[in-house]
């Protein structure tokens, strides 16, 4: 495991290398769950009625992560994208309202940035307003010498950047990064 901290004019970004895309999403989902529901570390998350959202390009990984994190695959909702491959923020917001009306707790949304599935600004506004963890999954290769704070969009709570042999998980907040260290 390698731990990185990148500083310049942008905010500090904290990173942890993981052995693949699934491990990166598991880590991000576990940290999101534990920050939203601290008691879940001790009592589990079965009774919380958590829901997790994923765009079509990353939903298989998110389903597996939800299973590993004890949230369950039934909690994962695959969100459609438009003809440009972007997630519809208004449709996502309606899904969140439906969940809230049914006493479920939307926790996490994962989208793939390089496949164009995120209308980043609109999606980020919905997530911030509703206190939902936004994970951006980069499907493209980014070499470590090109890793900068701008590689992790400032609107995402966590970002995974895939390299040939490992995945770097980036966190915007030090508290999330510190919480992630308890999993590695």
UniProtKB/TrEMBL annotation:
Stated name of the protein: Uncharacterized protein
Molecular function per GO: carboxy-lyase activity; pyridoxal phosphate binding
InterPro entries named in the record: PyrdxlP-dep_de-COase (IPR002129), PyrdxlP-dep_Trfase (IPR015424), PyrdxlP-dep_Trfase_major (IPR015421)
Family under the similarity heading: Belongs to the group II decarboxylase family.
A single GO cellular-component term on record: cytoplasm
Keyword Lyase: yes
Keyword vocabulary terms for this entry: Decarboxylase, Lyase, Pyridoxal phosphate
Lineage of origin: Eukaryota, Fungi, Dikarya, Ascomycota, Pezizomycotina
Cofactor: pyridoxal 5'-phosphate
Gene3D superfamilies reported in the protein's UniProt record: Type I PLP-dependent aspartate aminotransferase-like (Major domain)
GO terms for biological process, alphabetical: carboxylic acid metabolic process
């Amino acid at each position: 495991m390698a731990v990185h901290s990148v500083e310049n004019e942008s905010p500090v970004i904290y990173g942890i290398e993981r052995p693949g895309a699934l491990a990166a999403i598991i880590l991000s989902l576990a940290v999101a769950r534990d920050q939203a529901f601290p008691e879940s570390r001790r009592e589990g998350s079965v009774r919380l009625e958590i829901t997790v959202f994923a765009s079509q390009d990353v939903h298989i990984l998110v389903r597996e992560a939800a299973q590993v994190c004890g949230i369950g695959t039934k909690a994962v909702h695959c969100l459609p994208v438009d003809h440009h491959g972007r997630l519809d923020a208004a449709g996502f917001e309606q899904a969140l309202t439906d969940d809230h009306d049914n006493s479920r707790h939307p926790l996490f949304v994962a989208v793939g940035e390089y496949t164009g599935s995120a209308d980043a600004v609109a999606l980020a506004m919905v997530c911030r307003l509703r206190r939902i963890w936004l994970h951006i999954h980069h499907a493209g290769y980014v070499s470590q010498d090109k890793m900068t704070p701008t590689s992790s969009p400032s609107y995402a709570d966590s970002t995974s950047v895939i390299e040939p042999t490992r995945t770097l998980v980036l966190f915007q907040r030090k508290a999330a990064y510190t919480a992630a260290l308890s999993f590695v």
